[in-house]
Design a protein that fits this description.
heterodimer, A: alpha/beta, Rossmann fold, five-stranded mixed beta sheet, four-stranded parallel beta sheet, about 25% helix, globular, B: alpha+beta, Uridine Diphospho-n-acetylenolpyruvylglucosamine Reductase, domain 2, Uridine Diphospho-n-acetylenolpyruvylglucosamine Reductase, domain 3, Alpha-Beta Plaits, 4 domains, five-stranded antiparallel beta sheet, 15 helices, about 35% helix
Chain lengths: ~260, ~450
């Protein structure tokens, strides 16, 4: 199960000069889609047994999201943190996560959110599967059946599709798949004291090429961010004989009518 | 309203800001009072929307001269018909006066009366500050909130609206503009007329501007749901939580049937699957450490209080979802409701009060759903429609609930005020001296009785 800590997207500000997200402007939280992914994984565990391991790549403070995952039912949490992981695009991120999964050993199913609310690409999940050479289905809104070696899921890509893939596999899930549970107070406090394992680049050395991590391993670069300007409501009063004509003209000028 | 008056008002505020005619004034005649008890608005009303304190002053001067009733109006979110124009006259809507500036140095906001609660919350957040109370509907306007001394959920830690207002600019019935207080934490110059106007429900003066105390942001927040098997166990836990030194922003009580109905109404799911009655605690602390320290204490206290397993929401989305479901209960119940009561008792008596309410429900064979601000001793008991009941039957139930509250040292209204619908009850529960003093004050402020006539005063 892969998660990411993101800034609260409704509050965050962007630094137009540097083209970066100003992370200090908003509190951090677990990417909302990842909570649906975690809920999917925990429900499967509750039904079929097994263990849920959560991996996140990020700065040291991302540990709080991993604790959140432990409170919500995960069994083990691993934080990939190292300056050498920084500046990663989706390719380097997915490569690093796939490397960590290789280090973990065998698994049946990887569950991710469909995308993160800060990056919004939806690429990392499927790329991880490609690095690992396993089948993947994106935008899963329902898990129909799971057997020893197969999973049957419904994917919502505008129209709905039924997919059956062999395990091990990776799925990315939409918000419609479930409503994530709110953890108990007891579990939150217990998770505060639980262990979060920390892995750095060196600890992954035997499982992948470290030169493919972080900025060095990135093929894409953010050169510029533009922020759409917010238009507030405006009131204009037209009066006189030609008011209707001028109103139509104004609406046309703004592109509201042809 | 004669054409000459309408024309004079147009001269004062501009022709675009005077609305006259039954079809166009409809949106200014009612508030959120449950329809079965709501007063019937007058037919002949002109809506005036001044854009400045000078215009408010001119309108009042004119109205006073011509003895025209003036009904000041905010967001129309009141629950006792306080802003409903019950006589022919002027509805004075302050909606255009909606500027807010935040003074970071003094940690205060300067807000015009027509700015909404939502605007104030946003402006405070933008300045990195915090306006703690949350008296319900965010469409409520500052002027109305102050005129009604609104309470709401988040009053446990830092109080109701009265506790935040540091200064007011008001216009008297004569049109005279008066400034009371200011950006001051202390002010003892003479009688505190500002506090007198707060909660006077538009009967003494029209509020045009306020200086409001803000707080530093409390970044570590969490919302707890503590489930209980029974109403009485849940309610009796409330004073014990407060006595243990836990001071949440909000300490709300809700019940399964109404909260699930509200969730369903919103297309959401109430997250707590166990229990019949719930306490919702909103915690806000300066640091995570402080927050979790409170949480540890609450968990060990819950074990003693006989609760089921509490839930803890920390993400903004989850906290908002819980509060959204909580705050929409009223809307969800409204179609079947006759009245929403806000009788309030001393915090430690809330258990005894709710036990008595349960007895009343049993005696009358009715269901009295209850939810609300348990931490303030202010749980809203709802009187619901019953097949074959007359208004007198509902009145009897209301009367019994009031009697119980007063017997326990409480009041018949803790936050909604008297407005139009509680005047009869106010007459019964206020002493004659109280009424006489109020009438005297009213005469001093408004000798011609033009401001919100027929409200508050028995």
């Amino acid at each position: 199960m892969l998660i990411k800590q993101v800034p609260d997207i409704e509050k965050v500000r962007f630094d137009v000069e540097t083209g970066r997200v100003d992370r200090s402007s908003a509190p951090a939280e677990t990417n909302p889609f990842d909570l649906n992914a975690l809920e999917t994984a925990v429900r499967l565990k509750e039904k079929l047994g097994g263990r849920v391991t959560v991996i996140s790549m990020g700065p040291p403070q991302a540990e709080s999201s991993l604790r959140d995952a432990l409170a919500r039912g995960a069994d083990r949490a691993i934080l990939l943190t190292d300056k050498r992981f920084a500046g990663a695009d989706t390719l380097a991120t997915s490569y690093t996560l796939a490397t960590a999964i290789r280090k973990l050993g065998s698994f049946d199913l990887i569950v991710c959110g469909e995308k993160t609310v800060d990056g919004d690409t939806g690429q990392v999940g499927p790329e991880v599967a490609e690095h690992l050479g396993i089948p993947h289905v994106a935008y899963v809104c329902e898990v129909r059946e799971v057997s020893e070696d197969r999973i049957l899921v419904v994917s919502d890509m505008g129209d709905k599709y039924l997919f059956e893939v062999t395990l091990p596999a990776l799925i990315t899930v939409t918000k419609d798949i479930n409503t994530p549970r709110i953890p108990t107070l007891r579990d939150v406090l217990k998770a505060r004291r639980a262990k979060v394992e920390v892995w750095d680049a060196d600890s992954l050395a035997g499982y992948g090429e470290t030169c493919r991590f972080g900025l060095q391993g990135s093929m894409t670069l953010v050169t510029r961010i533009t922020i759409p300007s917010e238009e507030g409501r405006r009131g204009i009063i037209f009066r006189g004989e030609d008011a209707v004509e001028r109103l139509i003209e104004a609406l046309r000028k703004e592109g509201f009518i042809p | 309203m004669d054409e000459e008056t309408v024309e004079e008002l147009r001269k004062i505020v501009g022709r675009d800001w005077v609305i006259y005619g039954r079809d166009v004034t409809a949106g200014y005649l009612l508030d959120e009072t449950p329809p079965p008890i709501r007063p019937i608005p007058s037919r002949d009303v002109v809506v005036v929307k001044p854009g400045s304190v000078e215009e408010v002053s001119e309108v009042l001067r004119y109205a006073n001269e011509h003895r025209i009733p003036v009904f000041p109006r905010g967001g129309g979110t009141g629950l006792v018909g306080g802003c409903i124009p019950t006589l022919d006259g002027i509805v004075l809507s302050l909606e255009r006066m909606n500027k807010i500036t935040v003074d970071r140095e003094n940690i205060m906001a300067e807000a015009e009366a027509g700015a909404t609660l939502g605007d104030l919350i946003k402006a405070s957040e933008k300045a990195g500050l915090f306006f703690p109370p949350h008296p319900g509907d965010e469409g409520a306007q500052i002027g109305g909130l102050i005129a009604c001394n609104a309470g709401g959920a988040r009053a446990v830690k830092t109080g109701v609206i009265r506790n935040y207002v540091r200064g007011l600019e008001v216009v008297l019935a004569t049109g005279e503009v008066l400034r009371l207080g200011g950006k001051l934490m202390k002010d003892n110059l003479g009688y505190d007329l500002m506090q007198l106007i707060i909660g006077s429900e538009g009967t003494l003066a029209v509020i045009t501007k306020a200086w409001i105390r803000l707080y530093p942001r409390l970044p570590a927040t969490a919302t707890l749901i503590i489930p209980f098997e029974k109403r009485s166990t849940a309610v009796k836990a409330v004073p014990r939580i407060l006595q243990a030194g836990i001071l949440p922003l909000a300490l709300e009580y809700v019940e399964k049937a109404p909260i699930e109905r509200s969730a369903q109404h919103l297309g959401l799911e109430w997250p707590c699957k166990v229990g019949e009655s719930f306490l919702i605690l909103v915690l806000a602390e300066p640091s995570e450490e402080a927050l979790y320290a409170q949480c540890e204490r609450i968990l060990s206290l819950c074990e003693k209080l006989g609760s089921l397993e509490p839930l803890l929401a920390e993400s903004r989305e989850e906290q908002d979802r819980i509060l959204k479901i909580r705050s929409e209960i009223y809307t969800a119940l409204k179609p079947d409701m006759v009245d929403i009561l806000d009788a309030t008792v001393p915090p430690a008596s809330i258990g005894a009060f709710m036990d008595e309410v349960e007895h009343i429900a049993e005696r009358y064979g009715t269901y009295l759903p209850a939810y609300g601000h348990a931490g303030d001793g202010n749980i809203h008991v709802h009187i619901m429609k019953e097949e074959g009941w007359s208004m007198e039957d509902y009145d009897r139930v209301r009367q019994e609930i009031y009697d119980v509250a007063v017997k326990l040292g409480g009041t018949i209204t803790g936050e909604h005020g008297v407005g139009a619908v509680r005047i009869g009850s106010a007459a019964k529960y206020m002493s004659q001296t109280h009424v006489t003093l109020m009438r005297g004050i009213k005469r001093l402020f408004d000798p011609n009785g033009i401001l919100n006539p027929g409200k508050v005063l028995p």
